[in-house]
Amino acid sequence: MSDELKDEIEAINSIYGDGCLVVSQDSHHVYILTPPGEASSLRIEFPTSYPEEPPAVIGTHSAGAQGRKGDAARELSLFRQAVGTVFQPGVVCLFDAIEELNRLLEELAPAEPEHGGDNSKAVEASDTQHYQLEAAELSEPPPWTISEPVIELKSVFVARCARVSSTEEAASYVQHLLASDKKIRSATHNITAWRIKGDKGATFQDCDDDGETAAGGRLLHLMQLMDLWDVMVVVTRWYGGHHLGPRRFALINQAARDAFVRAGFVDENKTSTRKGASK
Predict the structure, then answer these.
(1) How much is the pTM?
(2) Measured between alpha carbons, how far is 107 from 103 in angstroms, rounded to an integer?
(3) Which of 37, 46, 170, 216 is within CB 3.0–4.6 Å of 50 for a Cys-Cys bond?
Protein backbone atom coordinates (compact mmCIF):
# COMPACT_ATOMS: atom_id res chain seq x y z
CA MET A 1 0.00 0.00 0.00
CA SER A 2 1.40 3.39 -1.00
CA ASP A 3 1.64 6.23 1.51
CA GLU A 4 -0.81 8.22 -0.63
CA LEU A 5 -3.43 5.45 -0.42
CA LYS A 6 -2.85 4.96 3.31
CA ASP A 7 -3.34 8.69 3.94
CA GLU A 8 -6.41 8.78 1.70
CA ILE A 9 -8.08 5.90 3.55
CA GLU A 10 -7.50 7.68 6.86
CA ALA A 11 -8.82 10.95 5.46
CA ILE A 12 -11.98 9.42 3.93
CA ASN A 13 -12.84 7.57 7.15
CA SER A 14 -12.18 10.66 9.28
CA ILE A 15 -14.48 12.79 7.11
CA TYR A 16 -17.34 10.37 6.39
CA GLY A 17 -17.08 8.05 9.39
CA ASP A 18 -15.25 4.85 10.26
CA GLY A 19 -16.13 2.05 7.88
CA CYS A 20 -16.73 4.27 4.85
CA LEU A 21 -13.68 2.76 3.12
CA VAL A 22 -12.44 -0.65 4.32
CA VAL A 23 -10.30 -3.39 2.81
CA SER A 24 -12.13 -6.37 1.32
CA GLN A 25 -11.72 -9.78 2.95
CA ASP A 26 -10.87 -11.44 -0.38
CA SER A 27 -8.12 -9.13 -1.66
CA HIS A 28 -5.87 -6.49 -0.11
CA HIS A 29 -6.04 -4.51 -3.38
CA VAL A 30 -9.85 -4.27 -3.25
CA TYR A 31 -11.70 -1.93 -0.90
CA ILE A 32 -15.38 -1.59 -0.03
CA LEU A 33 -16.63 1.98 -0.30
CA THR A 34 -19.97 2.93 1.23
CA PRO A 35 -20.69 6.49 0.08
CA PRO A 36 -22.38 8.60 2.78
CA GLY A 37 -26.17 8.52 2.58
CA GLU A 38 -26.29 5.72 0.01
CA ALA A 39 -27.63 2.19 0.51
CA SER A 40 -25.22 0.50 -1.88
CA SER A 41 -21.56 -0.32 -1.30
CA LEU A 42 -19.04 -0.37 -4.12
CA ARG A 43 -15.95 -2.50 -4.74
CA ILE A 44 -12.91 -0.39 -5.62
CA GLU A 45 -9.64 -1.91 -6.83
CA PHE A 46 -6.48 0.15 -6.49
CA PRO A 47 -3.59 -0.66 -8.85
CA THR A 48 -0.16 -0.77 -7.24
CA SER A 49 0.73 2.39 -9.17
CA TYR A 50 -2.20 4.41 -7.73
CA PRO A 51 -2.52 7.41 -7.83
CA GLU A 52 -0.58 7.46 -11.11
CA GLU A 53 -3.32 5.20 -12.50
CA PRO A 54 -7.01 5.48 -11.59
CA PRO A 55 -8.85 3.05 -9.28
CA ALA A 56 -11.17 0.56 -10.96
CA VAL A 57 -14.81 0.50 -9.83
CA ILE A 58 -15.38 -3.22 -10.31
CA GLY A 59 -18.92 -3.68 -8.99
CA THR A 60 -21.32 -3.47 -6.10
CA HIS A 61 -20.84 -5.24 -2.78
CA SER A 62 -23.61 -7.25 -1.14
CA ALA A 63 -23.53 -7.23 2.64
CA GLY A 64 -26.78 -7.37 4.54
CA ALA A 65 -29.65 -5.02 3.75
CA GLN A 66 -29.35 -3.20 0.42
CA GLY A 67 -31.44 -0.79 -1.58
CA ARG A 68 -33.26 -1.70 -4.76
CA LYS A 69 -31.18 -3.46 -7.43
CA GLY A 70 -31.80 -0.65 -9.89
CA ASP A 71 -30.48 1.90 -7.38
CA ALA A 72 -27.25 -0.08 -6.90
CA ALA A 73 -26.68 -0.29 -10.65
CA ARG A 74 -27.33 3.43 -11.03
CA GLU A 75 -24.92 4.35 -8.25
CA LEU A 76 -22.27 2.04 -9.71
CA SER A 77 -22.60 3.70 -13.11
CA LEU A 78 -22.59 7.22 -11.64
CA PHE A 79 -19.54 6.54 -9.48
CA ARG A 80 -17.61 5.22 -12.48
CA GLN A 81 -18.57 8.44 -14.26
CA ALA A 82 -17.47 10.48 -11.23
CA VAL A 83 -14.04 8.80 -11.08
CA GLY A 84 -13.54 9.39 -14.78
CA THR A 85 -14.43 13.07 -14.34
CA VAL A 86 -12.20 13.94 -11.38
CA PHE A 87 -9.15 11.66 -11.79
CA GLN A 88 -5.81 13.29 -12.55
CA PRO A 89 -2.60 11.20 -12.74
CA GLY A 90 -0.59 11.49 -9.54
CA VAL A 91 -3.45 12.92 -7.46
CA VAL A 92 -5.66 10.89 -5.09
CA CYS A 93 -9.27 11.19 -6.17
CA LEU A 94 -11.75 9.43 -3.86
CA PHE A 95 -12.94 12.51 -1.95
CA ASP A 96 -13.57 14.40 -5.19
CA ALA A 97 -15.26 11.32 -6.69
CA ILE A 98 -17.61 10.98 -3.69
CA GLU A 99 -18.51 14.66 -3.88
CA GLU A 100 -19.07 14.38 -7.65
CA LEU A 101 -21.31 11.34 -7.04
CA ASN A 102 -23.36 13.37 -4.55
CA ARG A 103 -23.67 16.16 -7.10
CA LEU A 104 -24.84 13.76 -9.82
CA LEU A 105 -27.39 12.16 -7.50
CA GLU A 106 -28.73 15.58 -6.49
CA GLU A 107 -29.18 16.46 -10.17
CA LEU A 108 -31.22 13.31 -10.71
CA ALA A 109 -33.29 13.58 -7.52
CA PRO A 110 -36.00 16.02 -8.80
CA ALA A 111 -36.77 13.70 -11.74
CA GLU A 112 -37.56 10.78 -9.45
CA PRO A 113 -41.20 10.11 -8.52
CA GLU A 114 -42.14 11.33 -5.06
CA HIS A 115 -44.24 9.34 -2.63
CA GLY A 116 -45.76 11.30 0.20
CA GLY A 117 -43.18 14.09 0.39
CA ASP A 118 -39.45 14.36 0.99
CA ASN A 119 -38.69 14.03 4.68
CA SER A 120 -34.98 14.80 4.24
CA LYS A 121 -35.79 18.15 2.63
CA ALA A 122 -38.24 18.88 5.43
CA VAL A 123 -35.56 18.13 8.03
CA GLU A 124 -33.05 20.34 6.19
CA ALA A 125 -35.58 23.16 6.01
CA SER A 126 -36.30 22.73 9.71
CA ASP A 127 -32.59 22.93 10.56
CA THR A 128 -32.21 26.07 8.45
CA GLN A 129 -35.22 27.65 10.17
CA HIS A 130 -33.69 26.79 13.54
CA TYR A 131 -30.42 28.53 12.65
CA GLN A 132 -32.30 31.54 11.29
CA LEU A 133 -34.35 31.87 14.47
CA GLU A 134 -31.17 31.73 16.55
CA ALA A 135 -29.52 34.32 14.31
CA ALA A 136 -32.58 36.60 14.44
CA GLU A 137 -31.99 37.08 18.17
CA LEU A 138 -28.90 39.17 17.31
CA SER A 139 -29.69 42.78 16.49
CA GLU A 140 -26.76 42.94 14.08
CA PRO A 141 -24.17 40.55 12.58
CA PRO A 142 -21.24 39.58 14.82
CA PRO A 143 -18.22 41.90 14.46
CA TRP A 144 -16.03 39.32 12.76
CA THR A 145 -12.45 40.02 11.73
CA ILE A 146 -11.50 37.62 8.91
CA SER A 147 -8.07 36.18 8.14
CA GLU A 148 -6.44 35.82 4.77
CA PRO A 149 -7.23 32.37 3.31
CA VAL A 150 -4.56 29.74 3.93
CA ILE A 151 -4.41 27.24 1.06
CA GLU A 152 -2.43 24.01 0.84
CA LEU A 153 -3.05 21.05 -1.48
CA LYS A 154 -6.48 22.49 -2.35
CA SER A 155 -7.60 22.61 1.31
CA VAL A 156 -8.67 26.12 2.31
CA PHE A 157 -8.62 27.51 5.86
CA VAL A 158 -10.27 30.80 6.87
CA ALA A 159 -10.50 32.13 10.45
CA ARG A 160 -12.98 34.57 11.99
CA CYS A 161 -12.58 36.09 15.44
CA ALA A 162 -14.60 38.50 17.57
CA ARG A 163 -14.88 39.96 21.05
CA VAL A 164 -17.39 38.13 23.28
CA SER A 165 -18.52 38.71 26.84
CA SER A 166 -20.33 35.45 27.62
CA THR A 167 -20.55 31.84 26.51
CA GLU A 168 -24.12 32.49 25.37
CA GLU A 169 -22.93 35.30 23.11
CA ALA A 170 -20.17 33.08 21.68
CA ALA A 171 -22.69 30.33 20.92
CA SER A 172 -25.08 32.80 19.27
CA TYR A 173 -22.26 34.11 17.06
CA VAL A 174 -21.60 30.59 15.80
CA GLN A 175 -25.31 30.06 15.15
CA HIS A 176 -25.50 33.34 13.24
CA LEU A 177 -22.49 32.41 11.11
CA LEU A 178 -23.97 29.04 10.15
CA ALA A 179 -27.37 30.54 9.45
CA SER A 180 -26.17 33.43 7.33
CA ASP A 181 -23.56 31.73 5.15
CA LYS A 182 -24.45 28.50 3.32
CA LYS A 183 -20.86 28.03 2.12
CA ILE A 184 -19.59 28.00 5.70
CA ARG A 185 -22.47 25.80 6.85
CA SER A 186 -21.53 23.21 4.20
CA ALA A 187 -17.75 23.35 4.91
CA THR A 188 -15.94 20.19 6.00
CA HIS A 189 -15.16 21.58 9.47
CA ASN A 190 -15.94 24.70 11.52
CA ILE A 191 -13.54 24.53 14.46
CA THR A 192 -14.27 26.88 17.38
CA ALA A 193 -12.61 28.01 20.59
CA TRP A 194 -13.24 30.76 23.12
CA ARG A 195 -11.87 32.11 26.42
CA ILE A 196 -14.03 34.38 28.57
CA LYS A 197 -13.57 36.05 31.95
CA GLY A 198 -16.82 36.14 33.89
CA ASP A 199 -17.95 37.74 37.12
CA LYS A 200 -16.12 37.24 40.41
CA GLY A 201 -13.00 35.84 38.78
CA ALA A 202 -14.78 33.00 36.98
CA THR A 203 -13.27 31.94 33.68
CA PHE A 204 -14.74 29.95 30.81
CA GLN A 205 -12.77 28.10 28.14
CA ASP A 206 -14.19 25.71 25.58
CA CYS A 207 -13.65 24.38 22.07
CA ASP A 208 -15.29 22.22 19.42
CA ASP A 209 -13.39 20.05 16.91
CA ASP A 210 -16.40 19.71 14.56
CA GLY A 211 -14.98 16.42 13.32
CA GLU A 212 -11.35 17.60 12.98
CA THR A 213 -10.01 15.51 15.85
CA ALA A 214 -7.87 17.44 18.38
CA ALA A 215 -8.01 20.67 16.34
CA GLY A 216 -10.22 22.54 18.83
CA GLY A 217 -7.90 21.77 21.74
CA ARG A 218 -4.87 22.98 19.79
CA LEU A 219 -6.72 26.15 18.83
CA LEU A 220 -7.61 26.77 22.47
CA HIS A 221 -3.97 26.14 23.45
CA LEU A 222 -2.88 28.81 20.94
CA MET A 223 -5.23 31.30 22.62
CA GLN A 224 -3.76 30.37 26.00
CA LEU A 225 -0.22 30.94 24.75
CA MET A 226 -1.27 34.30 23.32
CA ASP A 227 -3.05 35.16 26.61
CA LEU A 228 -6.29 36.05 24.81
CA TRP A 229 -9.44 36.62 26.86
CA ASP A 230 -13.01 37.59 25.95
CA VAL A 231 -12.31 36.41 22.42
CA MET A 232 -13.71 33.63 20.23
CA VAL A 233 -12.48 32.20 16.94
CA VAL A 234 -13.98 29.99 14.23
CA VAL A 235 -11.64 28.36 11.72
CA THR A 236 -13.43 27.00 8.66
CA ARG A 237 -11.83 24.27 6.56
CA TRP A 238 -12.86 23.12 3.11
CA TYR A 239 -11.14 19.78 2.46
CA GLY A 240 -9.26 19.69 -0.84
CA GLY A 241 -9.00 15.96 -1.37
CA HIS A 242 -5.49 15.53 0.02
CA HIS A 243 -4.69 14.34 3.53
CA LEU A 244 -2.43 16.93 5.20
CA GLY A 245 -1.50 14.93 8.30
CA PRO A 246 -0.37 16.82 11.42
CA ARG A 247 0.47 19.85 9.26
CA ARG A 248 -3.22 20.75 9.22
CA PHE A 249 -2.94 21.90 12.85
CA ALA A 250 -0.26 24.43 11.94
CA LEU A 251 -2.41 25.74 9.08
CA ILE A 252 -5.46 26.06 11.36
CA ASN A 253 -3.42 27.98 13.94
CA GLN A 254 -1.82 30.11 11.21
CA ALA A 255 -5.23 31.28 10.01
CA ALA A 256 -6.41 31.91 13.58
CA ARG A 257 -3.32 33.93 14.48
CA ASP A 258 -3.72 36.06 11.36
CA ALA A 259 -7.30 36.88 12.40
CA PHE A 260 -6.17 37.77 15.94
CA VAL A 261 -3.46 40.10 14.61
CA ARG A 262 -5.83 41.77 12.13
CA ALA A 263 -8.37 42.32 14.94
CA GLY A 264 -5.74 44.01 17.12
CA PHE A 265 -6.00 41.36 19.85
CA VAL A 266 -2.26 40.61 19.72
CA ASP A 267 0.42 42.89 21.09
CA GLU A 268 3.30 42.05 18.75
CA ASN A 269 5.83 43.89 20.91
CA LYS A 270 4.72 41.97 23.97
CA THR A 271 4.92 38.70 22.05
CA SER A 272 8.44 39.51 20.82
CA THR A 273 9.54 40.38 24.37
CA ARG A 274 8.24 37.07 25.68
CA LYS A 275 10.09 35.18 22.97
CA GLY A 276 13.30 37.00 23.81
CA ALA A 277 12.92 36.32 27.53
CA SER A 278 12.44 32.64 26.91
CA LYS A 279 15.75 32.24 25.07
Answers:
(1) 0.52
(2) 6
(3) 46
